[in-house]
Amino acid sequence: MFIPATRKEAAALGWRRLDVILVTGDSYIDAPHIGVALIGKTLMAAGFRVGIIPQPDVLSDKDILRFGEPELFWGVTAGCMDSMVANYTAGQKRRRSDDLTAGGKNTRRPDRACIAYTNLIRRHFKNTTPIVLGGIEASLRRISHYDLWSDSVRRSILFDAKADFLVYGMGEATVMDLAERLSRRQPVTGIRGLCFISTTPPQDYIGLPSHETVAKDKDAFAHMFRVFYDNCDPESARGLYQKQDTRYLVQNPPRPYPAPEDLDRIYELDYERRVHPLHQEAGEVRAMHTIAFSIASHRGCFGGCHFCAIAVHEGRRVVSRTEASILREAEKLTRHPDFKGIIPDLGGPTANMYGMSCKRAETRGVCREKACLVPAACKLLDIGHQRQIALLRKIREIPGIKKVFIGSGVRHDLVLQDKQYGMAYLKEIMTHHVSGQLKIAPEHSQDHVLRLMGKPDRVIRKGLLRPMRA
Ligand code: SF4
Q1: CB 463: neighbour CB atoms within 10 A?
Q2: How far is ligand 1, taken at its centre, from the CA of residue 349, in Å?
Q3: Could you identify the atom of ligand 1 that is nearest to the CA of residue 378?
Q4: What is the signed CA dihedral for 170, 176, 182, 187, rounded to 10 degrees?
Q5: What is the whole-number distance in angstroms between the Cα of residue 450 and the centre of ligand 1?
Q6: Band of the pLDDT at 462, cuts 50, 70, 90?
Q7: How far is the CA of 254 from the centre of ligand 1 (A)?
Q8: What is the CATH number of the domain that holds 432?
């Protein structure tokens, strides 16, 4: 079942009013790789009445008035990508195409979509229920941040959007908590994984340099980011606050990592794995080719690359789904009428981190003073590829599955350092699981660049290669 996207669909469920209305910058694809679908389905599974308004027209009321006002809150996301990344190239040229929009033309997603959609709601619903920002655009712009397109340090998007709350990171548990507390009329400002605006700084939270300071002082900005980065791990993080104008952005500590069974449950909810019929006339959504029948095996990345934001969104600890759940999902795909036997991707942020873990990180949090993979893989990190090999072998044995590809990037330094199973893994994926070209995580040939990227030196890797070739 789709999340209702029209009044008729909501009425068919007997819903005259909705608890939560989700507004998104993408066309509505009902698949577990789409955050807004996953959030909506999680809320529905808990009994909340949810509706979705994909890509509303921001110049008129024709879409936003569709369901009226929600009982609990509005959930606003720019979609699967930051709207400025989706709309412009790094060279600031307007992108013509959009893989997450039906028909493929980049005409439906406004710039700074979280701000545009919040303004749209406020224009048509005065004194409405809380507006909650979420998704990658909101999450990565939650404190003062550098914005390439305006070449400036912008303040928290919560202030610019004039929304009420911001859910950061992978938000399904935080959103559930919020919905439950709002439905019981309980206070919500203590919820982990939530940001809000306060007139006073909370006690016991760490104060970041103010927005005014970091906007003009690069050293203060670097210090702010360091403190922010060091407080992203649920085991050890403290709450943060930052003065933005006369008020404070408050970031509660992050949500604890989900257990593998929690991930299993949300990825195994009932997804249509189709584009909502609302978009049928507009044409194909190109992202469906990669999204519809891919399987997420894990979340998080302990790579710590300096150019990557995954650690501050998904966390530095990898949480892997159970093998049984992934196999069940794969088997279920074979019964989908549109499934042609191909799984385009089995992976996560870094494909070959499935099943890898650090016991210290699980109990005491990730190290602040050490990187997990630089200068070489930490001795406390289990980097064995054996779980992945076993999983891949079992999936391709399922009747009805012709191919399972690894579409996510592979950290090849991890493969090289796993002396026991690394080469077997490489052979396995090169023989059975590469479609076209094997994708590896960003690399470089020069050590000084690798160091800037936060990656191990080539020299170290050469040293690691020798015993494996012998
Ligand atoms: S002990 Fe090693 S693997 Fe674990 S968090 Fe610290 S640096 Fe990373």
Answers
A1: 12
A2: 18
A3: 2
A4: -60
A5: 20
A6: low
A7: 19
A8: 3.30.750.210
Residue 242's CATH number = 3.40.50.280
Among residues of the chain, what percentage have pLDDT more than 70?
Answer: 97
Atom of ligand 1 minimally distant from the CA of 367: 6
What six digits make up the tokens of 142?
């939650």
- What value, to the nearest 5°, has the Cα angle with vertex 133 and ends 75 and 164? 95
Residue 301 and residue 310: Cα distance in Å, rounded?
Answer: 7
Q: Quick one: 375 and 448 in the same domain?
A: yes
Domain count, the chain: 2
240/305 same-domain check: no
Distance from Cα 374 to the centre of ligand 1, integer Å = 10
**Cβ–Cβ under 8 Å, residues 80 and 290:** no
Summarize pLDDT for 405-460 with one digit per residue, the tens: 999 999 989 999 999 999 999 999 999 999 988 999 998 999 999 999 999 988 66
Q: Using a 6 Å CB cutoff, which residues line ligand 1?
A: 302, 358, 360-361, 366-367, 370, 372, 378, 380-381
Question: Which residue lies with its CA nearest to atom 8 of ligand 1?
Answer: 372
Q: Quick one: how far is CA 20 from the chain centroid?
A: 20
Which among 318, 360, 383 is the best mutation to test ligand 1's pocket, defined by most ligand atoms within 8 Å of the CB?
360
**Does the residue 95 lie in any domain?**
yes
Structural domain including 419 reads 293-469
pLDDT, tens only, 8-30: 999 999 999 999 999 999 999 99
